[in-house]
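Anyone else keep sequences and structure tokens together like this?

Example one:
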Amino acid sequence: MRNPLNHPILEQSFAIIDQEIGKHKFTPDEYAIVRRVIHSTADFEFAKLIHFSPEAIASGITAIQNKTPIITDVGMVKQGITGMVGKTFRNPVMAAVEQASVALPGKTRTETGLLSCYCQFPEAIYVFGNAPTALLALCAELQQSSVKPALVIGAPVGFISVVEAKEALAKTLVPQIQINGRKGGSPVAAAILNALMVLAWENSET
């Protein structure tokens, strides 16, 4: 039975991915996320790069169902998830970069906005697809805070500070889904969150 949240063409693409990926060791929920990332990128290497911490998916689903705010690093990630958010739980969504008109000294606007968002919503879902410096800023805050985000999606892409930011996230105890190495990007981050939205919606109907 087709999921009403998924377009028929998306379902056809999923069938092709299923055929090409063959046997795998992911749980059904993990695979739902992996498959959507592959669909958004046409890159099967993501099946090897994605990492789920224990309870990350469950924590993310619960937070989504509770209408927990979702903080993205940049506007492109926000734009990539607003459609699915609107079809499901209508969580508040904001982009960190849009929360700061000017940057604090020595920081980017995205870092500045991220720190402001964390002060207001420390238990939010944080989604990074572009700004490794903002992810590093969040990890620094986590070291000195007893309040943790419900989930951090760490998928920034690039060459500068990207691997370091992901390694810093891996050292935290926060529930996390991340893409190892240099790969990632806004479409990947949005795909992970959108897949979680679908899982949360399906679980709420059972």
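And example two:
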Amino acid sequence: MEALRLIRTARHALAEARHVPDVLAEARQAALLTEAVGAGLAESEDEELAGFGQQLSEAGAHAAVCLDRSVAGGILVGGGRAGRLTELGELAPTLGALDELLGEVGETLVVLACGADTESLYWTCIDGVDAMSECKDVTARLREAVDRGGGAEHTALGGAEPERAGHGSPLLVVRLGPPGEGGPTEEEWAPDYRVPGAAGASEVSVPAG
């Protein structure tokens, strides 16, 4: 399956996720998909793209490791999208969509960190935000490299219709403290996005992008 389609599916799934474990699982899937896209780019004949692709693959793998401990049993929602990647298609729209996905994952993890009720969840989210920010940085450099080449670099024929997405801004990282360690006061907290879920499971409401 083409990368752009998988990325769009991942963005929709992340927006629809409500329970915290599901959100974290979707975040990890996004990291694995980033790793797969980077691995594909690492095989490019263009040395600059290949170098950045390798960096992106390593950054995506690191992000997946950061989030791995919070995915119960290592189960991937939807069977693992990264394994269904068969072609990258048009690089400009693919990297633009990937940048948006990474930004949305980072913002969602910030929301979870704000409402975290355990230190484990808090630090998982913070580590994930940092890792996603690294992925976004490499993606931005890749987009600049593609732009310098006139967007003519293709890795597969018959890709998705070109679309131009604006270069995403860096993730906004809110410095918080873990639960019970001098974090914001009740008045300073961001709105509580958690609502009671069944069997004690947390549920998170994330605005759709």
